[in-house]
């Protein structure tokens, strides 16, 4: 049932429009209807949406018809149940006399509108002023109509006096009726649509419960609700905590500020914080009755933060401390304490410096964790007992810098053919780096002198220190190198340690001195070479070359150290001639000449290793000898020695194998000697005997 009422109410307040100054092409009007079922009766309120139709109804009356609705029937059978006319003069007087003072004003306005229904004025028509006067008259009539409709809705008694309300007491419960309202007499050349309304006679509770939302403020409460039903406006009552009685807060109903919105609100001010308040809300239904729609309660609370603290001082008086001092312009009674926070930026993310709240009588704080390499901004925040927070403005503290930059490093250095030196420095990462001092010397053990300073002012547009330095040196010098060092400085003129020395070579086209041989010592299995290598300072490589034939190319045989004076070549063979030479290379890839070659040939002294593991055994009437020899080959043979009666070893036999056998029944002693076909021989082996 409520859905019909909502639709009709929307139409009621949208027609006519105050901005509409011209009549429709085909003049027409519609009668809007709303209704409700209560106390075993149907109450109806209806309004034509145009002035002309309304005036005709007030003059001639309305006809009320009713039909029973059935879903099984395709047609409705209407029956006239009443003709309704406005009050006569004496009835108006009785209504006025029996009404309360607050209602009499509304009755007077309605009566004046009713009495003036015949006094419609129109302007003279002319092409110059006629249209304007017609528009003004139409606006006036529309405005009067809106005031009249609002007044009638406000009070159902007034609607009945104007014949705009009817109560049908002949209905039965649990049925559906369709009502039709029309003018008693039609208008000539004007169409008035009949008002139709479907009503189901079911008992419903008139009590409407709305969700009322409470917004808490400092010393005030705001209540917000949705007007999504037939109840409009609001009268607000608040419970007196002393008497327990509810008292009306507003004589005039609270209306929506935006007619297009469904949301309404009310704010109660000048309250006492932390006191609970209870409220009841009432509105006006379409029948002019006061209707309850909800309750709410709330407690305003202190949302006013303390006065902002002011930082008056921040100093880095001690190397490991920054002391912050502040004051409170006004000491609030509910002040609870302070917190101190720090950031590296003026508008950065400030971090608390302590976990516990500082007492409210505190005026200073010592920070021992400040950034020594970054900016330090501080804020002091005051907190009251409710948790409201106020904050000082950020305060920048200059840190006393006693920490020098770290040791700088060179990236590279080179000298071009014109003697221009270019030095690249790895830029230090200190935020307060001001620049570098460049030092130079002709020898690493000499004193270094300052030759350049690459600083920039802190307030310049430059953001980085100079990291590339230029220098000019002479190329005509006996020293092949020039030496550099640097120091880094910050804005407090703290100096870093010296960098490592950078050795930069002058351009060099002169080859190093040629090494020379002093002596060659030839052994059986090696050749020892003695020499004097190139002594030039810029020599980076000294190489020994070897070959077997002087007519062929030299082959690199070994790399020598600059301080080396001898080399022993063990990769040789006895009787083979080996030729040697030397050459030096400097760091500019200049090569010396090859040294004068020398020759060495390992010699053979004739000594051969003896046999090993010589053993003797007797097998019946034979003697069996066997031994080991690692260098056994086709040029090797063995001579067996045997003792004679005088006890002397004499040659006894010969063997090409590692064994010897002969018949022997007597006691004998043997020894072995190795011989090679080139004349070499070993010493006589140890003695073995058969007893």
Helical percentage: 10-25%
**How does the overall form come out from the CA principal axes?**
elongated
What's the overall average pLDDT, rounded? 85
Largest sheet: 6 strands, antiparallel
User: What low-confidence regions span 5 or more consecutive residues with pLDDT below 50?
Assistant: 1-24, 121-128
Instruction: Provide the structure class.
Output: mainly beta
Total strands: the figure is 45
Beta-strand residue percentage: 35-45%
Radius of gyration: 62 Å
Count of DSSP-assigned helices: 6
Spatial separation of the terminal alpha carbons:
145 Å
What key phrases describe this protein's structure?
6 helices, disordered N terminus, six-stranded antiparallel beta sheet, mainly beta, 691 residues
In short:
The protein is mainly beta. The protein has six helices and 45 strands.
Structural account:
- The protein has 691 residues and is mainly beta.
- It is 11% helix and 41% strand.
- The protein is built from six helices and 45 strands.
- Strands 18, 19, 20, 22, 23 and 24 form a six-stranded antiparallel sheet that branches. It has a four-stranded mixed sheet with strand order 5-2-1-7.
- A hairpin with a 4-residue loop joins strand 22 (376-384) and strand 23.
- Helix 4 (101-115) packs antiparallel against helix 5.
- The N and C termini lie far apart (145 Å).
